[in-house]
Design brief:
Family: Belongs to the glycosyl hydrolase 10 (cellulase F) family.
CATH architecture of the largest domain: Alpha-Beta Barrel
Strand content: 25-35%
Strand order of the largest sheet: 11-12-13-14-15-16-18-19
Number of domains: 3
Oligomer: single chain
Keywords: Carbohydrate metabolism, Hydrolase, Polysaccharide degradation
Pfam families: Glyco_hydro_10
Number of strands: 24
Shape: globular
Helix content: 25-40%
Largest sheet: 8 strands, parallel, barrel
GO molecular function: endo-1,4-beta-xylanase activity
Radius of gyration: 26 Å
Protein name: Endo-1,4-beta-xylanase 5-like isoform X2
Structural class: alpha/beta
CATH topology of the largest domain: TIM Barrel
CATH superfamily of the largest domain: Glycosidases
Length: 517
């Protein structure tokens, strides 16, 4: 949103409020960049950066403004972006974590396309947080958004509260979908299946639903493998995402499809959508429609600019209860990819919405190299203003890092996702193959945990209510805070017992349940 006046600086400017801001490289007549000098930045501190930005320039209706940071020995090319406009102020928010301390750093804002635009900034802020402060903030959000207070009232047939009734509480399912990709390697592999269902209640098929897998030759459609995977999912009460209807990347388009043009291509795509969604109507909670459409546009180039629009309308008509997702990479992982800045993502969603399509889900793949927690949080904050469900859909950490570092970064990403109230689910991209995984595995081939697997197990335990045993008070009541989900409650009073199942969903008020015994 573009505002007539900038709002006040966050955190009253943070470290910028204590001294005059030094600006360099700014010409009053042509301020193509704005720069701030920052002294004595520390390693490992989490710095949140924000500023209101406005541009001027001949014929410029908008321009991307990128914030970067240059220290003595490293340049952080993107710590935040915004699509700025003339005549009003836009809000840029991001941040950075230094890998080494810096006595002298320059934070600068400029247009990466070298367009002749003048940049104005106002209400700029740089706020440092220790790791402990950042974690405390996350924990506060988890406690307030992922948990809820419950009071159980135990009474006799006359409605009199029973003091001293023994209560046993067990969480039997979780409200927050946390899962992983699976591949056909799970079929017939009992150790893999047991390992998976012990941990996850959400899945996505890595490649088996993709067009090149189900119709490698024209007209020879084969759903045998995904059918078998779906049976495994169903048998174990696991929800599954549908990935994907079409993929815009030419590398992953079936060879026979690549050779089609015009009406033949349109007919083939229509058949694909009809076949897939008639076959799997109401089986998958989501569909990734035009996968990675911010980076690739094979179908738009071949069928015209409204191709995605038609795909979405056809998919919604055939499977109206599934949420349609725009799924892409480098939205939350970095802001240096000009194809997928948060503003580009939002504008593409709004474009489809204007054309009458409800692309109702925000899919952030999450293939991270080095995560930037304040940028992740700022990006999700911005996307959350759309009021749509946000999922991290393909989370992993680069295999250029050693396994211990992968695990450290994975924990950062998962905590950031789970603690954000607008994130509705997290999927890991860790399907296991004999030769490993796409980029990150949780276990070895004998299902012994790797460091990343230890992190997942630790967080699964941390984000679940352990078994609770207690007794009712003088009012016949017992209270607890529990993670959202389903609970089995067993009550014993004298020689009488009662069992009840309760569902705990998000809400600010204490949830009250009455059990008569």
């Amino acid at each position: 949103m573009c505002k007539s006046q900038p709002e006040k600086a966050l955190y009253q400017g943070g470290i910028l409020k204590s001294h005059a801001v030094n600006r360099i490289g700014v010409s009053a007549s042509n301020a193509n960049s704005q720069s701030l000098i920052l002294n004595d930045l520390t390693q490992g501190t989490i710095y949140s950066f924000s500023s209101w930005v406005k541009i001027k320039g001949a014929g410029a209706d908008s321009a991307v403004i990128r914030a970067s940071l240059k220290t003595e020995n490293k340049t952080y090319y993107c710590i935040g972006t915004v699509l700025a406009k003339p005549g009003c102020w836009s809000f840029l928010k991001g941040g950075f974590v230094l890998s080494s301390p810096s006595n002298f750093s320059v934070l600068f804002l400029q247009n990466p396309d070298n367009r002749n635009v003048s940049i104005e900034i106002a209400s700029t802020s740089v706020q440092p947080f220790t790791e402990e402060q950042w974690r405390t903030s996350q924990q506060y959000m988890i406690n307030s958004q992922r948990k809820r207070a419950v009071t159980i009232h135990v009474s006799n047939g006359h409605g009199e509260g029973l003091r001293g009734a023994a209560i046993d509480i067990r969480q039997v399912s979780k409200d927050f979908p946390f899962g992983s990709a699976i591949a056909q390697t799970i079929l017939g592999n009992l150790p893999y299946q047991n390992w998976f269902i012990k941990r996850f209640h959400a899945a996505v098929f890595e490649n088996e639903l993709k067009w090149y897998a189900t119709e490698p030759e024209q007209g020879k459609v084969n759903y045998t493998i995904p059918d078998q995977m779906l049976r495994f999912v169903r048998a174990n009460q696991i929800i599954a995402r549908g990935h994907n209807i079409v993929w815009e990347d030419p590398k992953y388009i079936p060879a026979w499809v690549s050779n089609l043009t015009g009406p033949e291509l349109q007919s083939a795509v229509n058949s694909r959508i009809q076949s897939l969604l008639n076959k799997y109507k109401e089986e998958f909670i989501h569909w990734d429609v035009s996968n990675e459409m911010l980076h690739f546009d094979f179908y738009e180039q071949s069928l015209g600019p409204n191709a995605t629009l038609h795909f979405c309308k056809a998919a919604h008509k055939l499977d109206p209860l599934a949420t349609l997702f725009m799924n892409d990479f480098n939205v939350v992982e970095t802001c240096s990819d000009i194809n997928s800045t948060v503003d580009i993502y939002i504008s593409r969603l709004r474009e489809l919405e204007r054309d009458g399509v409800s692309m109702d889900g925000i899919g952030l793949e999450g293939h991270f190299d080095v995560p930037n927690p304040p940028l992740i949080r700022a990006t999700i904050d911005r996307l959350a203003t759309l009021g749509l469900p946000i999922w991290l859909t393909e989370v992993d950490i680069s295999n250029t890092l050693d396994k211990e570092q992968q695990a450290i970064y994975l924990e950062e990403v998962l905590r950031e996702g789970f603690s954000h109230p607008s994130v509705n689910g997290i999927m890991l991209w860790t399907a296991l193959h004999p030769n490993g995984c796409y980029r990150m595995c949780l276990t070895d081939n004998n299902f012994q945990n790797l460091p990343a697997g230890d992190v997942v197990d630790k967080l699964l335990k941390e984000w679940q209510t352990g078994e609770i045993e207690g007794e009712t008070d003088e009012h016949g009541s017992y209270s607890f805070h529990g993670f959202l989900g389903e609970y089995q409650i067993s009550v014993k009073y004298g020689n009488r017992t009662a069992n009840s199942t309760i569902s705990l969903c998000r809400g600010d008020e204490t949830k009250h349940y009455n059990i008569q015994i």
